[in-house]
Automatic annotation (TrEMBL), chains A, B:
<comment type="similarity">
    <text>Belongs to the PurK/PurT family.</text>
</comment>
<keyword id="KW-0067">ATP-binding</keyword>
<dbReference type="GO" id="GO:0046872">
    <property type="term" value="F:metal ion binding"/>
</dbReference>
<keyword id="KW-0547">Nucleotide-binding</keyword>
<dbReference type="InterPro" id="IPR005875">
    <property type="entry name" value="PurK"/>
</dbReference>
<keyword id="KW-0658">Purine biosynthesis</keyword>
<dbReference type="GO" id="GO:0004638">
    <property type="term" value="F:phosphoribosylaminoimidazole carboxylase activity"/>
</dbReference>
<comment type="function">
    <text>Catalyzes the ATP-dependent conversion of 5-aminoimidazole ribonucleotide (AIR) and HCO(3)- to N5-carboxyaminoimidazole ribonucleotide (N5-CAIR).</text>
</comment>
<feature type="binding site">
    <location>
        <begin position="256"/>
        <end position="257"/>
    </location>
    <ligand>
        <name>ATP</name>
    </ligand>
</feature>
<dbReference type="InterPro" id="IPR011761">
    <property type="entry name" value="ATP-grasp"/>
</dbReference>
<feature type="binding site">
    <location>
        <position position="96"/>
    </location>
    <ligand>
        <name>ATP</name>
    </ligand>
</feature>
<dbReference type="GO" id="GO:0005524">
    <property type="term" value="F:ATP binding"/>
</dbReference>
<comment type="subunit">
    <text>Homodimer.</text>
</comment>
<dbReference type="GO" id="GO:0005829">
    <property type="term" value="C:cytosol"/>
</dbReference>
<dbReference type="InterPro" id="IPR016185">
    <property type="entry name" value="PreATP-grasp_dom_sf"/>
</dbReference>
<feature type="domain" description="ATP-grasp">
    <location>
        <begin position="98"/>
        <end position="286"/>
    </location>
</feature>
<dbReference type="GO" id="GO:0006189">
    <property type="term" value="P:'de novo' IMP biosynthetic process"/>
</dbReference>
Length: 383, 383
C-alpha cells in the first residue's frame, strides 16, 4: 500500500487475519502504518523510482490516498506491476472535472471548467450565486474548495488561483438537506458489493460523525443509492473499495466526490458490519470473493477524534483510561499520530439501538478523547 | 510479549487499535507475531539476559505462553521490571501440582504427587483405574498426559518417566459429560470480568471446536462458574486474562487446568464479544478499566484449522478463495504458519442463531481450510 496513514494502519490489522502482512511505502517511520507493520519501505509517492522498487517487491500495489501521479502508475502498469485500483479508475478520484464528465448522466450538480475569470462569472450568473469553486485535483477535508459569493469574489479568487497555476472548476451550490455516503467494493473478477448508506456530518468541511444507516432514509432510495454506487464502480472499472459521497436534496441525490480507497465514512464497518471496508479492500485487490456486508446493530455511530485547539491538561493515556471507565463498550481506534489542532488522530465507534443515545455517547467519547473534557459536565471523580 | 506465536499475533492486532505496537520476543523472524509486528527482538524465553534486555525495552512484560522460568521472572521483578501476570500468578499455569494444592477447596479431582511407582499404584488402588498421570510442568495440547490403565501400566510408565527426570502427579480420571472453559480478566487495580462459559470439544487432546455459550448450561450454573473464575483470579493475584478449563460432571464442575494468558478457548471473542480477549489482556496488563464482555450473537462457534495429515492438492490461497465463495460470513484467522500435520495454523469463527447450523458451517469451513475437501461433498465447480 502506497502511503502509511491510518487507512494503511487499519488495513494492516485486517491483513493479519488473512495471513498477510501489509507492506507500506511511507515517508517516515513515525507514520501510523509504519509504526505497526514490519514491512515498511521509505520513499515518496511522487518518486517513480521509489514506486517502481516498491511495486516490484509486492504482489499487488494499492493506495492509502489518491495522490500518486497517474503517469507514474501507467508506467508501472506498462512494466507489468499489478495496480489496484488501476490508474484509469483512480483518476476519477484525482480529477474532479473528469469524474463529473464521466458521471454526468448519473447525477452531478451543474459544473464547468474554469480557464478564466469570465468562465466563473458566466457560470454564476447562469446557475446562481453563491457557487462553488474547486481545485480539480489535490483537495481533501475542505481544502481546495472556495465559496464564491458574487461576481466580485469570483474575480479576485479565480484570478489569484489561476495565477498560481491551480486547475479549477466551478459547480452549482446544491441546496442540500444533508450529506450521504456509501461504500462499495468491486473485485477484478467484477463482483460488487455495498454496505448500507450512511449520513456523514461535517463541520468546517471535516467529517466529524458517521451515522449508519442514514437515519430516516427511505428503503427504496437506499437501494437506488447502492445501485448507483455499483454502477459507478462498474463504469470506472474499480478494483478495491470506494466511497461515493452524495448530497441529499429535495429532488434526489447528486454525486459530490469519489474516493477510490478505504474512507473515513466506512470506519464504522470495522465493528459495525460483518466484513470491514479494510478486509473487503484486501479481498477485492487480491481478487478473493467479497465478504458479507450486513450491519451488526440497528444503529452504529462513528465519531472522529480531532486534535484539540489547545493541548489538553490530561495526557492521551489518562484520557483513554477515563473513557474506558465511563464507556465499557466504546471501540477506540488510536492512529498513533501526534496531536495537532483539527487533525484526525483517531475515532470511536458505538453500537446500539437508539440513534439519539448511541450518537450522544459516541460524540461524548470523541470529544473527551480530543479535549479531556466531558461535553455533558460528567465528573470523572464521581463528585 | 514474550513469545511470538498466534496469541502474540492477535494481541498485536488489538494493540494497534489502542495506539500501541506490541513488542515481541521471538525465537525467529518467521514466527506468527514476528511476521506482523515491527518491534521484534530475537532471543530465547529461557535466556535471562535476553529476557532482561527485552524487559527493559518495554513498559510491561507479558506472555504468549507459560514457559518462562519462574526464577528468571522473579529476578526481573526484583530489578524493577513490570511483569503481568506476576510470577506468583503465572506459576499456577506452570505447576499443575501447586495449582491443585492452592485451589483444592474450589473443586479439583483427587490428586497426589508421584515420587515413586508406589505413589501411583497406591493412588490408583484407592481412587480407581484408569487414572491420569501428568507431568507437573510443560505439557500442552495433550502432551505430558498419560492414561494409566492398571498397576502394571503404572509401573512401566512411571518408572520410565521418573528415570528421565519428569516431575509427576497423578489424578483421578473424572467421569465427565463434556469439557467447559471460561475466560476471566483481572487488572492490577483488581477489577475483574468474565465472558460467557463455553464448551470446548477436544479430539486426541487437541481443542477442535469452541461453542459459545456452552449449549444447555443452566444459567445458575453458568453464574457459579463465572464466579469461580473470578475467585481463582483473585486468589492467585492474576493480572491479564486467564482460561479456566473445567470438567462438567454429574456432581458439578471440577477444575482441570489454568492458562494465565489469552487462550484458544477465547478466540471466539474477537468477533463474538464486545471486547476480545486480546484487547482485554492489554487493558488488564496496562491497568485500563476492562471492556464489556457481552456476547454479540446467540451462538458463536470457533473451529481450529489444523494442518492436514497429507499435503492438500490445492494451495492455501486457493482454499481461502473457495472458502470465501461458499461462506460470505466466515471470519478467518490465518496465523502465517507453515502447514504441518495436526498443527494449529488458523481458526474460523461463525456467528448465528441456530447451534447445529453454525457449528456445521464452522466445522465445514475449518475442515476445508485444513484439507481442501468439503466434508459434506459440496462441489466447488457447482456440478
Amino acid at each position: 500500500m502506497v502511503g502509511a496513514g491510518q487507512l494503511a494502519r487499519m488495513t494492516h490489522q485486517a491483513a493479519v487475519a488473512l495471513g498477510q502482512s501489509l507492506h507500506v511505502l511511507a515517508n517516515s517511520l513515525d507514520e501510523p502504518a509504519a509504526l505497526v507493520s514490519p514491512n515498511t519501505s521509505l520513499g515518496s509517492h511522487t518518486d517513480l523510482e521509489a514506486l517502481r522498487a516498491f511495486g516490484k517487491s509486492v504482489d499487488v500495489l494499492t493506495f492509502d490516498h489518491e495522490h500518486v501521479p497517474g503517469e507514474h502508475l501507467r508506467t508501472l502498469v506498462a512494466e507489468g506491476i499489478r495496480v489496484h485500483p488501476a490508474p484509469e479508475a483512480l483518476v476519477h478520484a484525482q480529477n474532479k472535472l473528469l469524474m463529473r464528465e464521466r458521471l454526468a448522466d448519473l447525477g452531478v450538480p451543474p459544473f464547468t471548467e474554469v480557464l478564466s475569470v469570465d468562465d466563473a462569472v458566466k457560470f454564476g450568473n447562469e446557475h446562481g450565486w453563491p457557487c462553488v469553486l474547486k481545485s480539480i485535483s489535490g483537495g481533501y477535508d475542505g481544502r481546495g474548495v472556495w465559496m464564491l459569493d458574487d461576481p466580485a469574489a469570483a474575480e479576485t479568487t479565480v484570478a489569484e488561483l489561476l495565477e498560481a497555476g491551480t486547475p479549477l472548476m466551478v459547480e452549482q451550490k446544491v441546496s442540500m438537506r444533508r450529506e450521504l455516503a456509501v461504500m462499495v467494493a468491486r473485485s477484478p473478477f467484477g463482483q460488487g458489493g455495498t454496505w448500507p448508506v450512511v449520513e456523514t456530518v461535517q463541520v468546517n468541511g471535516i467529517c466529524v460523525e458517521v451515522l449508519a444507516p442514514a437515519p430516516g432514509l427511505d428503503p427504496d432510495r437506499a437501494d437506488a443509492i447502492q445501485d448507483l454506487a455499483l454502477r459507478i464502480a462498474d463504469r470506472i472499472g474499480l478494483t478495491g473499495v470506494m466511497a461515493v459521497e452524495l448530497f441529499d436534496t429535495d429532488d434526489g441525490v447528486v454525486i459530490n466526490e469519489l474516493a477510490t480507497r478505504p474512507h473515513n465514512s466506512g470506519h464504522w464497518t470495522i465493528e459495525g458490519a460483518r466484513t470491514s471496508q479494510f478486509e473487503q479492500h484486501l479481498r477485492a485487490v487480491l481478487d478473493y470473493p467479497l465478504g458479507a456486508t450486513d450491519q451488526l446493530a440497528p444503529v452504529v455511530v462513528m465519531a472522529n477524534v480531532l486534535g484539540a485547539p489547545a493541548s489538553p491538561a490530561m495526557g492521551p493515556d489518562e484520557r483513554l483510561h477515563h473513557l474506558f471507565a465511563r464507556f465499557r463498550d466504546a471501540h477506540v481506534h488510536n492512529y498513533g499520530k501526534q496531536e495537532r489542532p483539527g487533525r484526525k488522530i483517531g475515532h470511536v465507534t458505538m453500537l446500539g439501538t437508539d440513534l439519539d443515545d448511541v450518537r450522544r455517547r459516541a460524540s461524548l467519547a470523541a470529544h473527551w478523547l480530543s479535549r479531556g473534557e466531558w461535553a455533558d459536565g460528567y465528573d470523572i471523580h464521581g463528585g
